[in-house]
Design brief:
Helix content is 81%, strand content 0%. The protein has 406 residues and is mainly alpha-helical. The protein has one domain: Up-down Bundle (Growth Hormone, Chain: A), CATH 1.20.1250. Helix 4 runs antiparallel to helix 18, helix 8 packs antiparallel against helix 9 and helix 19 packs across helix 20. It is globular. The relative contact order is 0.17.
Length: 406
């Protein structure tokens, strides 16, 4: 009972419960969107490059709008910023659903959709994480992030199979309409969060440019945060393009299974993320957080290497569960450290800087998609495992304080 209460400790706070439930709808919509995009593009092009690009293009706006999103999160009411972003995502998704339903969809439509909907991510994410950190005491931030990962990644367990089933029975258009509805519900939920008095205390008379450089200077003088931000870049640049977003290619070329099978592979990733999130949320105190971050990402790279060398579906599914669990612990813990160390009045800008790396996702998708196109998806994943391990070791030689951070 004590372990159960520790795992769910952040749920005692009303605003956090609202953030968590809203995340359930948001993540469900996102994974429906991802399986529809992945299946449509690969079905139309039979190209690993275009499939990887379509699944990663929504991250490109982070490169250009990431800093602006952080300033918005520190400058205006985060509830309204997130709600407006969710409505925008619902309308854009509904637009693509109409195009797909009437049979006029082409590859460029989907690529354009991915880029347009991605505009909302760098604006929404800093406010979301900052608002979540405000909704619990500082001692609960790790638990809150773990539970956030539970809903964010655990929805992969349910929604990809649902999406695959809707595609198989009704088509891709109705699946997108379902996703648009989920985005709308998420927006409404955020309006029920208690207004934060801290928002009124942050002056808006300072110029946007000055606020941006305040965030840069803060990160520059915090080697642990800077090192974690650089290390986290490996996730969108290397890990996600070569594992998660490579599943449509694995489903078609390696395991030779249909859309329902693709949904099950993505569900295995979701199950692993769920296990990792529950495990992290159940730990009351992690005394060696820096070492844990490093060990988990190195272990993930090792599992990626093994996964790339096998052809057995059952064993591959097991390894997907394992690498997803470990990666979730790494990602949630590194984010928790950044949120905990950073003061609230600058938190949005620091979080946005850590999210800029997500803008490199299209580059990673093109790189590892090209490798998969010419050498196969397993070669792409193997290369990514080697790159991850090498980069982590290199970063540790410069940012040694990460290893000793408690």
């Amino acid at each position: 009972m004590a372990l159960f209460l520790q795992t769910l400790s952040s749920f005692q706070y009303r605003d956090y419960r609202i953030v968590w439930i809203a995340g359930l709808f948001m993540s469900g919509a996102y994974w429906i969107q991802q399986i529809v995009i992945g299946w449509l593009v690969f079905d139309m092009t039979q190209s690993a490059i275009f499939t990887g690009l379509a699944l990663g293009l929504d991250s490109l706006p982070y490169l250009f709008l990431g800093p602006l999103g952080g300033i918005v999160a520190d400058r205006w009411d985060r509830r309204y910023v997130i709600a407006i972003s969710g409505i925008y995502m619902a309308l854009v998704t509904l637009g693509l659903a109409i195009v797909v339903t009437y049979g006029a969809v082409q590859t460029w439509h989907i690529l354009t959709y991915a880029l347009i909907i991605g505009i909302s991510y760098p604006v929404m994410d800093p406010g979301w994480l900052s608002l979540m950190a405000n909704s619990v005491p500082k001692k609960n931030i790790v638990n809150a992030l773990a539970l956030n990962a539970l809903v964010g990644n655990g929805t992969r367990l349910a929604f990809p199979p649902i999406g695959g089933l809707i595609i198989a029975i009704y088509g891709a258009g109705p699946a997108l309409i379902f996703g648009a509805g989920l985005y709308g519900v998420c927006s409404a939920a955020f309006l029920a969060i208690t207004p934060s008095k801290a928002r009124d205390q942050i002056g808006r008379r300072v110029s946007l440019l000055k606020q941006f450089f305040e965030g840069i200077q803060y990160v520059k003088h915090q080697p642990v945060i800077l090192g974690l931000i650089l290390m986290t870049v490996l996730m969108p640049l290397v890990y996600l393009p070569s594992v998660n977003r490579m599943m449509p290619v694995y489903a078609s070329d390696v395991f030779e299974i249909g859309p329902t099978g693709l949904g099950m592979l993505m569900a295995a990733i979701g199950f692993g993320c769920t296990v990792g999130a529950v495990a992290l949320a159940s730990i009351k105190v992690i005394s060696q957080r820096g070492k844990t971050v490093v060990v988990t990402i190195m272990f993930s790279s090792a599992v990626m290497l093994v996964f790339s060398l096998i052809d057995d579906l059952m064993l591959a599914t097991t390894l997907l569960v394992l690498v997803s669990a470990i990666s979730t612990i790494y990602w949630s813990l590194s984010e928790a450290i950044i949120l905990e160390v950073t003061p609230d009045d600058i938190r949005g800008r620091v979080v946005s800087l850590s999210g800029i790396g997500s803008g490199l996702f299209p580059l990673g998708s093109l790189t590892f998609g090209s490798i998969a196109e010419h050498l196969g998806p397993q070669s792409a994943t193997f290369t990514a495992g080697l790159v991850t391990a090498g980069c982590v070791l290199l970063l540790l030689t410069t940012f040694r304080k990460i290893w000793s951070f408690h």
